[in-house]
């Protein structure tokens, strides 16, 4: 066999296993475990070391799906190293479950890709840290429910007791404990002899084994065990680990389990089933209606705070009382009100003003947002919701210091929220168009994809959801409120928002629309992954596409209302902004829904007059904007309020009331409700008051009069409120869940740098100080004097040979490089850098030393 045909030696470490990987495989590792590339490792040995640290391994294990995690747990109780056949028996059992056998290669490949497993199939090795985390111990039981091996359980047992067990089970005595324990272990792994041994036991003894077989494997016994327990102890089927505590050895449990490490391996993900299906047109129309309602709700919220919102708590956030007031104003529950508040905050539409008496108010971005087309306004909100880590669902809960979590307050970030939102919507996108899944079906799939690690996953009560499950439930409800879904199914704009492909086979328009849980759609075991739009450009393109898809689904804004004789106006759809703004001042909203009902009252008409409108203006406006004739009662209402409006004038003295009709002033003085205003007559047409003008205005209006404010010059003051805005504010940044995933450019540069550093670290060279006789690097940069370094460089220029150098850059970072010097002059060496694959120039004073490469490395 020629040297070229000689098979590569089996890797002896994770670093060697990484060294034989190609760039595509290394890129997959760094993409799936971004903590390994922050900062970029100097070489593959450092990459392997970092991949084996506890924090990194825990993070990687938490991102495995259930079957891959079960595979890792099985490897933790297998021999080290373990052949593939042993792992297959632990996962598939003696019956060799075909589904498990078919899925196991994928799980092993995933563990290898994640650098949690290395070695050939005949010597599979779980990285040491993962084995320590998953292997059973008295303090940390294994998720498999298996206990220690016979060798581990008998470590503290007396040699005489071990020999007694051998005699009881019919084995010959040995001269030492090691061989005795080996013989006992061989007995427990022999199927025929174990069957005979268990057949001798009484029924009570078998019941004890059945209770311990799936874990926990530990039990309690008294100092004088019962006969059926004594039978187990005498045969080594239970072994003592501490006074009063016994354990079922791993070999015995595996026999009783028919060789399986897990009671229920889950090789395939649970299906996401559709509970109901609707025509896509119905889904899109429902979602569009929800989108309009969402815009109206946010607009209403911001109008409530247009002149300044509630105060900011000292610890930050909104008080419980102010949240309740907001919920009442929006006619929603408090959790839903918290969602709309957080959504507006995430979109940068509201913020605190930063004043001494800090209050919430709209930001300048709100005015810009209101001018956008309707579809773009919705897309702005949806694009802010999808990546947000602030989670309104936790509002009202308690933080780690037992403090109430308040809306718009601190400690609401949950870094897993964006990933869960995107994954839930991706699962919906994987269903047929118009299909809505059951919530439990989605939660079961998410729990398989990211299971809880350890025994707590089995102790979870049915209604006790983990954080990811709660995030998924909130995602389903929030997506419906926002109009991303309609009737529980993903709408076309929502599909575009997450970058999901368009359905290839849309349902025909004439298809029936089954309803209810009985209309099950086909099972989908594998939902194709939907990539998250990575860069700002991709996200902006997805948002714009969603806005374009929503626009034709929305009704055109109306330029009219329908006036009715009962002093109401009906808006049968969304109104143009100018019409909505004027009508919002002239009338009060009585009910909302498919059509909005406005009611005209004396107070609302007076509000319009206070804002500078005249009776003629209001009559002209209603005539122009109504498709029905203006009812006579409404005309009379406007004229009556306008006739009385401004007859009384309130100005600053402390305050005064002026009226040309002294009979009206007599009426005020005679009214007992005006006693608190401190009024007294100064002249037949003038009253003085002890209250300030604002209080006097409100007091007279409460009595039933319609006074107008007066300036110092005697002119009527227009009571148009000034909108309050915060200084420019940026929307809150999401809190990342660990290091960000590297992009392709960073991956390419990182792999190139790691390869370069590894080449320099592993290239053979001639022995130098601190090196072994074989020329292996001693672990430090080469150290030579300035004169020797210069002479070696100049000689290499003449011979064209490559050199191994140590180099320290301007930041003080040391590295090893393999270079071929081209020119040495002026204190610099210009050389072809083999590690960087380019020509570079290095200052000689930064070269720590130089060494010649070994002959076989040139």
Automatic annotation (TrEMBL):
Residues 503-515, 729-742 have a biased composition (Pro residues). GO terms for molecular function: helicase activity. InterPro entries: WYL_dom (IPR026881), XPB/Ssl2_N (IPR032830). Residues 496-539, 720-745, 758-783 are annotated as: Disordered. Residues 788-850 form the WYL domain. It comes from the Bacteria. Keywords: ATP-binding, Helicase, Hydrolase, Nucleotide-binding. Pfam families: Helicase_C_3, WYL. Residues 561-683 form the Helicase XPB/Ssl2 N-terminal domain. This is Helicase C-terminal domain-containing protein. The lineage of its organism: Bacteria, Bacillati, Actinomycetota, Actinomycetes, Kitasatosporales.
